[in-house]
Amino acid sequence: MELTNNDFTRLKNYMYNNYGINLEKKRTLIETRLALVVRRLGFESFKDYTDSLMKDKTGEYASVLVEKLTTNFTYFMREEMHYDFLRDQVFIPGLKKTPIGGLKIWSAASSTGEEAYCIAMLASSVFGRSAKLKVSILASDISSGVLKHAKTGIYSNDKISKLPQLWVKNYFKQLNDSSYVVVDDIKNLVEFKYFNLNDNLGWYNGKYDVIFCRNVMIYFDNPTKQKLSQKLYESLKPGGYLIIGMSENLSNLQTDFERVKPSVYRKRL
C-alpha cells in the first residue's frame, strides 16, 4: 500500500494541527505503522482512510492514529532520579507542611499509567495511610487506548522489574505467572482523563506543585515547544517544579523557568 505525497501531507498536517506532533521527517514511520491498521479497518488506500479520518466525529480513528504514531514504551521507575527528587524535595518536606488541599501532581503524558502509579506508590511510601489526604494525582494522555489500559492497572513482570520488592509486595496483587495488578488503594490516588496538550482549553493557572511532562517535547517543533512550555509554566504554583525527560531541555526556548538540575525546572516564586 503506497503512501502518496498528498496522503502524507494530509496526515502530517492533521497530526500537527490537532496534536502539535511534528512528523515532517517521519514518512517511513507513518507508512510502516499505519499500513496494517488501514487494511485491518477495511480501507483499500491511505486516501480512503484519511478521508474517513477527517470526517469521523467519534474520535475513534484519531485515537488509533495517535496511538500508532507515538511511542508508548515505558516501565515503572523509568528515569529513577526524578522520583528521588520528588521524594526528597516535595514529599518529605510535605510531611511537615502540606499545602491546603494537598500536593497536586500532574502526569501530563501518562501513557499506560506506569509514571502516575509510581508517583502514587511513592506518595504512599512516604505518607502512609494519609496519602489520599496529602496528594492528588492527575494523569492524562491523548490516546484513549493507553488510558483504558492504564485504568486496568495490569502489568507484565518486565514492566515492574525495577520496582523495590517491598513495593511489589505492598502495592500489587499477582494475577498469574506473568502479570500483576495495582491494588485499589494506589489506583484510588490517581485520576485518569483524556487531555490534548495542544488544546487551548482545559488548562488551570497556578494549580500544580509538580508537573511530569517527560519525553513529550521530542515530538514537537520549537514553536510548539515554546507554546507548551508557557502553558506548563502558568499551570504551576509559584515554586512548583516541571520535570521533563532526561534527553530533553528548555535551553533553546524563551521561558521564565529556573533550571534546578538536568531535566528539572522551577517556576519562580
Automatic annotation (TrEMBL):
Residues 1-269 form the CheR-type methyltransferase domain. GO terms for biological process: methylation. InterPro entries: Bact_Chemotaxis_MeTrfase, Chemotaxis_MeTrfase_CheR, CheR_C, CheR_MeTrfase, CheR_N, CheR_N_sf, SAM-dependent_MTases_sf. Keywords: Methyltransferase, S-adenosyl-L-methionine, Transferase. PROSITE patterns: CHER (PS50123). Gene3D superfamilies: Chemotaxis receptor methyltransferase CheR, N-terminal domain, Vaccinia Virus protein VP39. GO terms for molecular function: protein-glutamate O-methyltransferase activity. It holds the Pfam family CheR. The keyword Disulfide bond does not apply. Its EC number is 2.1.1.80. It catalyses: L-glutamyl-[protein] + S-adenosyl-L-methionine = [protein]-L-glutamate 5-O-methyl ester + S-adenosyl-L-homocysteine. The keyword Plastid does not apply. It is an enzyme of class 2 (transferase). This is protein-glutamate O-methyltransferase. It comes from Asaccharospora irregularis DSM 2635.
